[in-house]
Design a protein that fits this description.
Number of helices: 13
Strand content: 5-15%
Largest sheet: 3 strands, mixed
Oligomer: single chain
Radius of gyration: 20 Å
Number of strands: 5
Shape: globular
Length: 259
C-alpha cells in the first residue's frame, strides 16, 4: 500500500470518528445538493469518503442504478426483439418483484461467460453464459445473482468499491470538495464490483437462494448442479470463476442436499 493511499484511508477513518455530527450532516447536505448550487447526483462528492461511510440503502440503490446505466452504455445491450433478450424475458417472467426486490434484466452480447447483479436490482446476463447453459441452469445462475442482492452482498461490495474510489481521489477533510466521479469512472466502479471475489459464505447463501427459486417455480432443481459443473469446465472464458470461486465443491454440496 502506497503512502498516499494510506493517508487517504486514515483521513477516511478520522472523518468518520472525529467529525462533529452537525458538521457531518452539513457536509452530507452539500453532497446531496440540499445546500444550494447545481443539482447533484448520488455520485457527487462533498467528502467522498464521508459519503461512502454514511450511504443509506436508498443512496446505494441510486448509485447502483446510475452505475448500471453507465455500464450499459459501455456494452452492447440486446434489443427487446433480439432472441437473447426474448429468451431472458421468458425465463425471468414473474421475477421482476421477487421477494420484494425491484429487478430489471438485460443481456450483454459478448462471448464472455458471466452475469452479475447490482444493489439497485439491475441484473445483467452475458450471451456467452446463455449459450453455455440450458433454461433451468440459467435460471439457477440468475437466481444466484438475485441472491447476492437479497442478502446484501451486492450492497457491501458496492460500498467497498465506492470507498476505494474515495481513497484514490485523496479526500483530506469534509471541507475539501474533491469534485464528482466522472462518467468514465462509473464503468470502472461496476467493473471492480463484478470482479471482486465473493466469500464462501456469500456463495453458499446465494446458491441456496437460486436453488430455492428453482424449487418454488417448479423447475428442475438438478439444474443447479449441472450449471455449476458446466461453469467449472468453462475454461478461460468463464469470467464468473474469478468472482464466484469453487463451483465444483458447490455443485457437490447442492447434490448432497438433493439426495
Amino acid at each position: 500500500m502506497t503512502k498516499t493511499v494510506t493517508r487517504c484511508l486514515l483521513a477516511t477513518a478520522l472523518i468518520a470518528v472525529v467529525l462533529p455530527a452537525a458538521h457531518a450532516q452539513s457536509a452530507l447536505e452539500r453532497m446531496r445538493g440540499l445546500g444550494g448550487g447545481k443539482a447533484q447526483t448520488v455520485l457527487d462528492v462533498g467528502s467522498d469518503a464521508l459519503k461512502g461511510l454514511s450511504l443509506t440503502d436508498a443512496e446505494v440503490a441510486a448509485l447502483g442504478a446510475e452505475a448500471a446505466a453507465a455500464y450499459d452504455a459501455e456494452n452492447t445491450v440486446a434489443a427487446a426483439n433480439d432472441p437473447y433478450a426474448q429468451r431472458l424475458a421468458r425465463l425471468v417472467s414473474g421475477w421482476e418483484n421477487d421477494a420484494g426486490l425491484s429487478l430489471n434484466f438485460k443481456v450483454y452480447k459478448t462471448p464472455e461467460i458471466n452475469a452479475f447483479a447490482l444493489p439497485d436490482g439491475s441484473v445483467r446476463v452475458y450471451s456467452g453464459l446463455m449459450d453455455t447453459l440450458d433454461d433451468d441452469e440459467l435460471r439457477f445462475v440468475i437466481g444466484h445473482e438475485i441472491g447476492h442482492v437479497k442478502h446484501g452482498h451486492s450492497k457491501a461490495r458496492f460500498r467497498t468499491a465506492y470507498l476505494a474510489q474515495a481513497a484514490r481521489k485523496g479526500v483530506a477533510s469534509a471541507d475539501n470538495v474533491a469534485g464528482a466521479l466522472a462518467s468514465s469512472e462509473l464503468g470502472g466502479l461496476v467493473e471492480s464490483v463484478v470482479k471482486a471475489q465473493h466469500s464462501q459464505s456469500n456463495e453458499l447463501e446465494s446458491d441456496g437462494y437460486g436453488l430455492g427459486l428453482l424449487q418454488r417455480g417448479g423447475f428442475e432443481p438438478q439444474a443447479a448442479v449441472t450449471a455449476l459443473q458446466k461453469l467449472d469446465d468453462g475454461g478461460q472464458k468463464a469470467d464468473m470463476l474469478s468472482s464466484h470461486p469453487d463451483p465444483a465443491s458447490r455443485a457437490r454440496r447442492i447434490q448432497s442436499q438433493l439426495r
